[in-house]
Specification:
With 457 residues, the protein is mainly alpha-helical. The protein is 62% helix and 5% strand. It has 19 helices and 6 strands. The protein has helices spanning 15-21, 24-27, 31-47, 53-72, 84-96, 109-145, 165-190, 209-215, 225-230, 233-259, 287-310, 323-348, 353-362, 367-376, 381-398, 407-411, 421-425, 427-432, 442-456, and strands at residues 150-155, 158-164, 192-193, 220-221, 267-268, 350-351. The strands form 3 sheets. Strands 1-2 form a two-stranded antiparallel sheet. The protein has a two-stranded parallel sheet with strand order 3-4. α8 (209-215) links the parallel β3 and β4. The protein is elongated and about 100 Å long.
């Protein structure tokens, strides 16, 4: 098949090179954006008198017909074409004749592909944001349902202090709120229209770039034509934002995997989001969480791949930039898939309050409160810290816990201990005393829930 760019060369390329050069196998995903952008371009050409109004109308109607036929399946994409842009223009020319050849006036594939990709990713950002919001809502729902459940909080994966399970969950809600902010920022910078930049230097035609930009929902136009065709910051920024989002999902996955293990038993995942073993009938594997954790590395790879591709490119457009699409498409599809399974997995998981509280009681995580009790009695903190550590060592050696250790044993370490000690080191009291804003008391966590709901609204 003769290439539409034939002229300077014969347009005949080795079949191997042709396959290597082709991008239609993946950029076919952009057909809606390509046709929509072309319709706006035809309207602008007609409005500016670059082509006649009748020609513009014919182009727009022809493009509408192609879009409808592709959507319905009446028209199939020809994968022997070099890319989606050439395919659409080829079909249009077949249907309209010479009028179809006028569509590409005052435009290059360089600014055309940049336009299509921005439009496509703009809508993908909106979908990713909606899926992320759904996950935050699932977390908030679990936090509200388990507001009184106490668990051990960890540092260094060692039991540290008692916290509410809801408090731990809301930490992820806060992370995801920031992810939503990053996505919104990314979309704002993405929503700049490159069309009209042409190959790199602009055009001699009297175009109206603002008309096209506004028709396509852009907030601004690329103010430098070289930047307009050679910039892929918006891809890198989106990859970066969803890499951070995947990091948060991966950390949550790791804890979900731990919490659902026989060693922890803090939660039980719904059967709908686990699998069994082919040989061990007792197994209930958290495969969905494990896959999310694994796919995080895949998204990181997409980010690093594109950064590496772009790092040495001179201005303006280079064919290397064709590598942007597979990376960004893969990462976007991956994060959407992960979010779609993660939200219902969180929504349907069941907390095990008794297991969490037993772990909290067995970890001496009220030892800080024991020290604080002595400080309130007038003992310097470092002295109180030492005594509390000695008492914990005694409990470990004798198989006891702080809440049940007899008062007479406490008094062998300090005469400051009285019967009022026990309410002070009760786990519920320890949690509810953390009244500082952002802390783990029920009132504080309720305030966090209200804040997140307000941000989502």
């Amino acid at each position: 098949m003769a290439k539409m760019w034939a002229g300077r060369t014969s347009g005949e390329v080795s079949s191997i090179a042709d396959d290597f050069n082709s991008s239609i196998s993946f950029d076919c995903k952009l057909y809606t954006q390509d046709i929509t952008g072309s319709m706006a371009h035809a309207a602008m050409l007609g409005a500016q008198g670059i082509i006649t109004a009748q020609e513009a109308d014919a182009l727009i109607q022809g493009l509408e017909g192609i879009l409808q036929d592709l959507d319905s399946g009446k028209l199939e994409i020809d994968y022997t074409c070099e890319d989606i842009h050439m395919f659409v223009e080829q079909v249009l020319t077949q249907r309209l004749g010479d009028v179809g050849k006028k569509l590409h006036t005052a435009r290059s594939r360089n600014d055309q592909v940049a336009l299509d990709l921005r439009m496509y990713l703009r809508s993908e950002v909106e979908e990713i944001s909606a899926l992320t919001k759904a996950l935050v809502e699932a977390i908030v729902s679990q936090a509200q349902s388990n507001l009184g459940v106490i668990m051990p909080g960890y540092t260094h994966l060692q039991r540290a202090q008692p916290i509410l399970f809801s408090h731990h969950l809301m930490a992820y809600a806060m992370m995801l709120l920031r992810d939503l902010g990053r996505l919104a920022d990314c979309r704002k910078r993405m929503n700049v229209c490159p069309i009209g930049s042409c190959a790199l230097a602009g055009t001699t035609y009297n175009t109206d770039r603002w008309m096209e930009a506004k028709a396509l929902g852009f907030d601004d136009i690329a103010r430098n034509s070289i930047d307009g065709v050679s910039d892929r910051d918006f891809c890198v920024e989106l990859l970066s934002a969803i890499s951070v989002l995947m990091m948060h999902l991966s950390r949550f996955s790791e804890e979900t995997i731990l919490w659902s293990s026989w060693e922890f038993q803090f939660i039980e995942l719904s059967d709908a989001y686990t699998t069994g073993s082919s040989i061990m009938p007792q197994k209930k594997n958290p495969d969905m969480a494990e896959l999310v954790r694994g796919k995080t590395g895949r998204v990181y790879g997409d980010l690093m791949g594109l950064l590496t591709t772009l790092k040495g490119l001179p201005l303006a457009y280079n064919k290397d930039m064709q590598e942007d699409k597979e990376a960004i498409f893969d990462a976007v599809d991956t994060v959407k898939m992960c979010l779609k399974v993660f939200a219902p997995m969180v929504q349907t998981m069941a907390a095990k309050p008794e297991k969490m509280k037993k772990a909290a009681q067995g970890g001496f995580i009220n030892a800080t409160d024991l020290a604080d009790y002595l400080v309130k009695k007038g003992l310097p903190f470092r002295s109180a810290y030492k005594i509390s550590g000695q008492i914990v060592a005694h409990c470990i050696a004798h198989g006891q816990v702080l809440e049940t250790l007899p008062l007479e044993v406490y008094k062998t370490y300090s005469d400051l201990f009285e019967a009022d000690l026990y309410p002070e080191i009760d786990l519920t009291t320890c949690v509810e005393k953390r009244i500082s804003e952002g802390g783990t008391s029920a009132a504080s966590v309720s305030a966090q829930i209200a804040y997140v709901k307000e941000q989502l609204a």
